[in-house]
Amino acid sequence: MEKNEKKPLIQIIDDDLKNLQVAGKSLEKRGYRVSISQSGQEALKISALIKPDLILLDVLMPGMNGFEVCKKLKANPELRHIPVIFITLKNEPSDIVKCFEMGGVDFIPKPLNEPEFLARVKNHLEIKITNEKLIKQKLETTTLLENLGQGFMIFDKDGVVKPGSTKIVKTFFGQEPTGKKLADIFELNEDERVRFKKWCQNVWSGKISFKDLVGLAPQTYMKNNESYYSLEYRPIYKRGENQAVSRVICIASDKTKEWELKKKALKEEEKGITYNLIITNTIEFLDLMMDAVDSFWSIQLYLEKEKNRIHLEEVFRKIHTLKARFAYFKMSDLVNNAHKFEDYLATLMDKISLDEEDWGKCLDYLESLKKIVEDFQSENKNLLELANKVFFLEEGNFRTVKIETVKDFFEKEVGVKSNHFINFKNKFLLGTLEERFKGFETLIKQLSAMQGKDAEFIVSENSVVVNQDIYGPFISSCIHIFRNAVDHGIEGIDERVSKNKKPTGQIKVEITKFDESKIKIIIKDNGRGIDQKDLKKHVKTLSAELEKKFSKMKGEDYIQIIFEQGFSSKEKVDEVSGRGVGLGAVKSEVSKLNGSVRVFSKVEEGTTFVITLPIYL
Q: What is the pLDDT of residue 143?
């Protein structure tokens, strides 16, 4: 019997014989094969011999503990792929995080809850099998069959499909392809159509080999987000003419099942990353969830009651900022739906007037976002309870409702001059903004690492006491300043060294008090700075309206254009940025607080944002 036809083999490593017996019997009743080990050293030898499908590993063992065993397993190329589930009495947040950091895929608390225990084992075995299939599929080489059979189309230099396509193609694409352009069949957008047309021109010109061009053609087609097809291309050369292309064959293969399996595996991987980020950034996540509920509520009022077109930009900014914050926690479903909502809002802002159908569709998009947040809360109750415990430990106070709700209650019931209200205000509302800004440190480190950069984030000590909740939306909007600093300001390590700069860039926040009633917040980086000549060239290609509006401005006045609605330093819109609302959102929140913001920059020295705000207590 082949190995893949056998029941999965599970290795249990625990120094307690009773625990081994309990877990082993539960697994054997379900038909699993079981191997047991009572020490780390013994377990490693057995693992190398039997190559188990899953390892259940106790943390607290004499001699070599579970973390050390896991470290050695992950260091062995033949064993590192085996999923490890920790079984432990230790359930402090720091212990749970360490389980994941050491390479564990899950942890199960002792004593074992049999149904939960068996469900987790089954789930991770399924994920392992899925991952093994994906790896195998990736390694397999796709070859052209001697008889192509079903699933191909032949097209000419204009991208038009010629007669002779197989019948299954009509099923794949929902239409008869003959005589139609591939760009229409593949439903390419404007930019993709331009690239495909250029690709065809290069293929038929013969100046570049087909082998070098094939990877630049459309590679996949998705139908109604339900079916997934891979696209391959093979040239048909003219007789007697070396490398002169006559026609090209497009081979479409139904990869829907593989795509679904891959999505499932990626979803599980994303879930693990999200959980880890929430546990290690608890305060930021809980604040985000409360801000999301508040934002959804205010947006719903705009859409149901006021229905005033003037509020669309405000809705756009709120959704954009929430999207950027949820993106950090890898919550892709919410990010993707927020992106679609933005697309729709963008089309509405170009319309002269809106009807009931327009407002109704906006509410539908909003409801989809609300449902994702509600489902997350419902499906992850244990995680959120754990996050709250971490939050209480770090903050030393108890918050189960939004602070504004409690404040309104005190104002109404006891009055703003009462000792109760004053004590509440001093304990929960007043404080420095220093800690709120420090919450961006993890995000900045992560963004820098993703781009091969190294950035130091410094928030200066300060003693300026303010009502922190009033400044909440403004601080959230500052995510756009920090993203710009990492994306466009701080250079890569090699570039900085070549400029005789320190390899590590710096982003610094300074908060000071002046005039007794105002605070000044300075956010600066020591990166490339803004080159006004390049900026003007970019504006010229971006927007004729912006170019005209700032045509007479010079020097520092001109670079304030980066705060304008519609300005973006990115050439392409993606799920996180590039829509031209980022720094405009910062300016909008500063204006709401009756403050001011201005940017200063010197090439190769860096960029500085100076924000002046009244002190609110």
A: 35
Task: Give residue 63's pLDDT band: very low, low, confident or very high (50, 70, 90).
Answer: confident
7: DSSP letter: P
- With tokens 């739906």, the residue in question is 337
Edge-to-edge strand ranges of the sheet holding 9-13: 33-37, 9-13, 54-58, 84-88, 106-109
Please name the amino acid found at residue 252: A
In CATH, what class is 432-614? alpha beta
Q: What is the model's pLDDT at position 159?
A: 92
Half-sphere exposure of 221 (CA within 13 A, CB side): 21
Give the residue carrying structure tokens 């943390």: 59
Structural contact between residues 499 and 535, judged by C-beta atoms closer than 8 angstroms: no
Task: Please name the fold of domain 281-400.
Answer: Four Helix Bundle (Hemerythrin (Met), subunit A) (1.20.120)
| Cβ-based neighbour number of residue 575 at 10 Å | 15
- No. of helices (H) and no. of strands (E), the chain: 26, 16
Q: 152-260, which class in CATH?
A: alpha beta
Q: What is the dihedral of CA 46, 51, 54, 55, to 10 degrees?
A: 20
Contacts of range 438-447, beta carbons closer than 8 Å, 24 or more positions apart: 439/281, 439/283, 439/284, 439/287, 440/478, 440/479, 440/482, 442/280, 442/281, 442/284, 443/328, 443/479, 443/482, 444/482, 444/485, 444/486, 444/507, 446/328, 447/482, 447/483, 447/486, 447/487
Residue reference for tokens 């007669």: 163
530 compared with 164, residue with greater pLDDT? 530
Tokens representing residue 307 in the block: 């229905």
d(CA 445, CA 255) in angstroms, rounded, equals 37
Q: Tell me, what's the pLDDT at 99?
A: 86
- Where b means 16+ CB within 10 Å and e means fewer, 199-213 reads bbeebbeeeeebeeb
CB 288, CB 325: distance < 8 Å: yes
Q: Alpha-carbon distance 23 to 35, whole Å?
A: 11
Length of the chain, in residues: 617
Instruction: Please check the confidence at residue 572 and state whether its pLDDT lies above 60.
Output: no
Place of tokens 């188990």: 52
Q: Tell me the C-alpha distance between 573 and 576, whole Å.
A: 8
Q: Identify the pLDDT of residue 608.
A: 93
CATH class label, 3-139: alpha beta
Best CA proximity match to 55, nearest among 89, 19, 104, 111: 104
Nearest residue to 599 via CA among 538, 545, 530: 530
Report domain extents, the chain: 3-139, 152-260, 281-400, 432-614
Question: What per-residue confidence (pLDDT) applies to 184?
Answer: 93
Strand 466-467 and strand 54-58: the pairing is unpaired
- What pLDDT is attached to residue 391? 47
91: left (phi over 0), alpha (psi -120 to 50) or beta: alpha
Angle at 173 between CA 197 and CA 186, to 5 degrees: 20
Neighbours of 284 (CB within 10 A): 20
Range with the poorest average pLDDT among 41-45, 332-336, 405-409, 465-469: 405-409
